Amino acid sequence: MSKIAVVYWSGTGNTEAMANAIVEGAKDAGGEVELFQVDDFKADDIANYDGVIFGCPAMGDEVLEEDSFEPFFAEAEAKLEGVPVALFGSYGWGGGAWMEAWIERTKGTGAKLFKEEGLIAENAPDDDVLTECKALGADFVKSF
Q1: 30: which residues sit within 8 A by CB, 6+ positions away?
Q2: What's the CA gap between 22 and 53, in Å, rounded?
Q3: Residue 143 CB-density burial (10 A; 0-12 exposed, 13-18 middle, 19+ buried)
């Protein structure tokens, strides 16, 4: 059984809804999954998991949330080499440029990036996106 952490930041609840659906899919696939808001997870905790799924919405000028998530992820980058990682989040404008930059940044860590394009939702995730989130969680677990 794979042990997975889903670590996210959400301001409006959109990314949180995606995180909950990912957890549901991962558990349905037999994974041992724990859900964390980013402030409750430390970069050193990554070593306790077989893989990590990170979620953060686009903020400001198409960047990761700057007060909690960005400082955490900057520290986590040094711990991601060889770690299976998936990325998800929501946006309200810009079309997903923040995800493209985050993917490139994550690739640069040496992480094993799962689903190279990431999973994004414009505004609140609809039923189709939530189904994709469940599939992401399940497929991530099955990849071990």
Answers
A1: 1, 141
A2: 9
A3: middle
Q: Which class in CATH covers the domain with range 3-142? A: alpha beta
Q: Which of these ranges, 2-6, 48-52, 94-98, 135-139, has the smallest mean pLDDT?
A: 94-98
44 and 54 Cβ atoms separated by less than 8 Å: no
* Token pair recorded at residue 26: 């991962």
Q: In which element (H, E) is residue 62 found? A: none
Q: What is the end-to-end Cα distance of the chain in Å, rounded?
A: 8
Q: How much is the average pLDDT of 118-143?
A: 97
Task: Measure CA 8 to chain center.
Answer: 6
Cα 23 to Cα 3: distance, rounded to the nearest angstrom: 12
What does pLDDT average to over the chain? 96
Distances (CA, A) of 113 to 70, 98, 140: 18, 16, 10
Tell me: pLDDT of 23 over 90: yes
C-alpha span between 37 and 1 (Å, rounded): 23
User: What's the pTM value of the predicted model, to 2 decimals?
Assistant: 0.97
pLDDT of residue 1: 64
Domain boundaries along the sequence of the chain: 3-142
